[in-house]
Records
---
Amino acid sequence: MLQYFAESRWYTIVGATAFYAVTSYWLLYAANENDLIANTDFVYWLAVTASTVGYGDLSPVTPAGKLIVALYVIPLGLSIFAMVIGRIAAWVSLTWKKGLLGMNSLMLNNHILVIGWNEQRTMLLLDLILKERDAMAERPDIVLCVKADITNPMPGVIEFVKVDSFNKDEDMDRACVGTARTILIDNPQDDVTMTTALYCTKRNPDAHQVAYFNDDSLVSLLQDHCPKVECTPSVAIEMLVKAAFDPGSSMLHHDLLSIDEGQAQFSVKIPQSCSAISVAKLFVNLKRKHDAIFIGYAPNGLVKEMVVNPSLDATLNPGDTLFYIAERRINAINWSSLDAD
């Protein structure tokens, strides 16, 4: 019997609690403890008695009532109360453990999904994402999805899902791949990155997707099949050469990429409700009103058609993504003021 109650379901606990309440009521009624069973006073008294809080404002007065409370109400109430509290604690512990191990199924929308595990590089990636998110007006949830045998590296800060495959529907549904607004793919193996990017494009073609490759030759291959995916190949060698011929280049690029200090590069999409804006007016007013420098734009958000340092005679249209350098992200832009003379 002890094992049965230790492994009991919630309906068993509810049934035992109901039986305890009904029998306690009738025993107190039989003992003429009318004050204890009056209206809501009975529920209140039974709760404080079973939990041993014992406020003392209500108590049995008849000898039979005292015996019933001492021999039945308190012992049985303590057992049921301990069983309920133990079950709640076990459920909370199991839920926390499942979240730490990545076993839970999430229900999220418009979140940032990071797929892959590269140890310290992924930790740095998550740190930078968190800092970028803190500067945003809205703060989307961040989900880390891995196949590696690890636990949540940032419990309580990010969501965590562990899967067997990055292209298996039942696994990736747990990470809500179909409702993510941004998907970042960074795996140690480029072939896994390639197949994951193809899968994510099929499941969520509207998401902004970024994939990192060690082998630059795979970038064009992926973009032939998924032109919307933004690929970021390794540029360490290019940076090394650039710094050799243009001293200070590495520090400049580090400053533009870092969000901890100095200036940084940001982007924003021109709303569809805006009218076309000339580059000349945009350049001057962006600097004048927001102390930011316009550096280029992507027509209709297509990064493959990026235009850097465009002519002052060029025009930006609604839906274009403009890129700028500023001390911090500009969350509220008065677009009509940028087109003013």
---
Amino acid sequence: MHLTVLYRGPLASCDYDCPYCPFAKRRDTPAQLRADRAALERFTGWATGRPEERLSILFTPWGEGLTRSWYRRALVELSHAPGVARVAIQTNLSCRTGWLAEADRDTLALWCTYHPGQTPHERFLAKTRELAALGVRFSVGVVGLPEHLAAARRLRAELPGHVYLWVNAAEGHRYRDAEAAEWTAIDPLFPFSRDPHRSAGRPCRTGSSVVSVDGEGTVRRCHFVRDMLGNLYDGSYRAALAPRPCPLAVCDCHIGYVHLETLPLYDAFAGGVLERVPTAEALADPGVFLGLPVRTTAT
């Protein structure tokens, strides 16, 4: 089977302090860092020891993983593992990039987020150019706050043309049509992020071909549904894998709603679901390609 795993260990420290970010911000103690390292090494051992399976892995840490050597090592090791089809991580791209030369760039990918005010524009842009020169597959994104609009426009104008710049709707922010049109001009797929998606009772791949795993190996269907399916390391989760409807009223996070079967995002992001890289067709004509109305002008 092809199983997609969203891994989130205990790491919660970050070198940025974005006021809009829902992730915990704190300094991990040495003991906490050791525990996170041990948990990641255990998970990596599990994943690399299953050459007969096909795995896609996305690391979604609460903090910034790539400033830690064990995350960089894990990504390189997993990229070369025969059973791993894709390994990706969400990152603010504050780390150095040279280590990526050791990875299999056909397998490894990065989901990068630009945080205006936390890093200089020139520094972040230089990192994206380093990734492009290394042949790393990646996307770049920004939170769609009004104060970020000018920075996002500048970034879009200066990024390599093949790099997708996505926009996440800011949590709790309601977008008027005119405001949404400005963000859609930057990200043609922003309409999918603009409003939460009704999900209650609707079929979702999570819990069947997609699971969430924490540092203890506890398996859940996704990060947002707390019911346990079993444990990764004793194999008890396997008996619980089955198609099931979403029990939540809405889903408003891309790493969740991308797996809803009622949305066409597996087609829009074919080959790039984990790293959030869409097809050229989806970007060129999202309304026709996705079969959904895309509001690009003010009403």
---
Amino acid sequence: MTEHEPELAAAAEIRARIDTDKPHSARFWNYFVGGKDHYEVDREIGDHIKEIFPGLVDVARTSRHFLGRAVTHLAGEQGIRQFLDIGTGLPTADNTHEVAQRVAPDARIVYVDNDPLVLAHARALLTSTPEGETAYLDANLYEPEAVLKAAEHTLDFSKPVALMILNTLGHVAEYDQARDLVSRLMAGLPSGSYLVISDSTATSEGMIAASDAYNASGAVPYYVRAVDEIAGFFDGLELVEPGVVQVTQWRPEAAGSVVDAYGAVGRKP
């Protein structure tokens, strides 16, 4: 076996896992935020949903901006130096590590996703400053203890960690299961850690129709939830002001638009 054969075999295995016949949420979202890593099937459902509910494009873009403001706040004002980002999605501009290390070059970030296309791009694009570290785990949200165990190779769980789960929990059909997964992940993090969540919400007929159209496309379903269900993920945590709000209203730099997506940041006592 030559020096490069294991890498080529791994790349072939990743390519074999990529299904281009059905839309995929990471590629679909990448299309909406202006990325380049998507296929015709993703663009077709994306354009169809734009016709049904153009506001979903705003949800995708403003949710990305929420990530930037939340990470900047945590790294800057709260001194957080460790981030566990589950449901990473495809790398675009201002990924978690880029925002965090812009504020704190020594920040350490672990990304978690189980999409083969995300994995293929993560290896090339999720880099780090010399002072910090960035790692990628090909792992599953449904196995929180295994995720935490693997993240220990990069993160020090004796110190606070910011757990980021953005636009991901909607893939968990049962709300009680989604809450359980979040609780198990937070249970493995020390006092002073933070939880950051944002998700699309069932706050307009347009968003509900867009969700139904996406779920009918053959993609892995995404379920929009009520605002009080998003708030329920933060039970037992200390909410950072302004609490659970539309992502555009969370510490905005300017007046934000109305969108069907809510988010919050909470601190573990």
